[in-house]
Amino acid sequence: MSGAGGEHRAIEPAEQAAAMMTAAGMPRMPARVMMALVAAPGEGYTAADLADRLGVSAAAVSGAVRYLQRVHFIRRRAVPGDRRDRYELVPEVFYGSMTSNTALYEHSADLMDRIADETSDDAVAQERAAEMAAFFRFLAERMPRLIDEWEHRRSAGA
Predict the structure, then answer these.
(1) Which partner for 133 in 26, 72, 109, 121 could form a disulfide, CB atoms 3.0-4.6 Å apart?
(2) Taking the model in full, what pTM does it have?
(3) Are 66 and 50 in contact (CB under 8 A)?
(4) Is 33 helix (H, G, I), strand (E, B) or coil?
(5) How far apart are CA 70 and CA 115, in angstroms?
(6) Considering only CA atoms, which of 66, 61, 67, 68 is closest in space to residue 47?
(7) Using an 8 Å Cβ cutoff, are 18 and 28 in contact?
(8) How far apart are CA 92 and CA 154, in angstroms?
(9) In the structure, what pLDDT confidence band is assigned to residue 10 with cuts at 50, 70 and 90?
């Protein structure tokens, strides 16, 4: 494994971040691979580098890499003169995933409305579904503005 001392110091926070992502619903091994790639050197990591860094089998890395590629969080990159491909995060991966969720929030709100309609005989269930619908609509409404604010802040160098 190549690299500077900084990537070695980042192992513990990367594992903690992976644990948080797992608690939020992401499969454990893809979360660990993704966070290892956050801390990777500029040239990324090979599958063997990832297995070594994480102390797992090549098969575990292979499955995690397939999952992360399928959800467009990482990509494989060939390096001229090197037979082994390297993996790296897709640029602005978190930004892109948050931006693309606006339609999902809208659809979720519509589904919650349907649940509220179908539970009209139970005020508690109806209120719960209506609350969730309102929250999803709030996210759908606010997300474009949050993205605009982020782009402004990032371009200002903050």
Answers:
(1) 109
(2) 0.70
(3) no
(4) helix
(5) 31
(6) 61
(7) yes
(8) 12
(9) low
* Interaxial angle between packed helices 123-155 and 102-118, expressed in degrees from 0 to 180 and rounded to the nearest 10: 170
Q: What are the C-alpha distances in Å from 78 to residues 81, 82, 86, 122?
A: 9, 8, 6, 58
- In a 3-state reduction of DSSP, which class is residue 104? helix
Summarised one tens digit per residue, pLDDT across range 48-58 is: 999 999 999 99
Which two tokens mark 101? 């969720």
Arithmetic mean of pLDDT, 1-22: 71
- Residue 75's DSSP bridge partners are 88
For residue 96, the tally of other CB atoms under 10 A from its CB is 13
Cα separation, 27 vs 104, in Å, equals 20
The separation between CA 38 and the C-alpha centre of its own chain, rounded to angstroms, equals: 11
5-90 belongs to CATH 1.10.10.10: yes
Main-chain phi, psi angles of 49, to 5 degrees: -60, -45
List all residues 6 or more positions away from 117 whose beta carbon is below 8 Å from its beta carbon. Answer: none
CA dist., res. 9 & res. 143, Å (int): 34
Ranges assigned E (strand) in 56-147: 74-77, 86-89
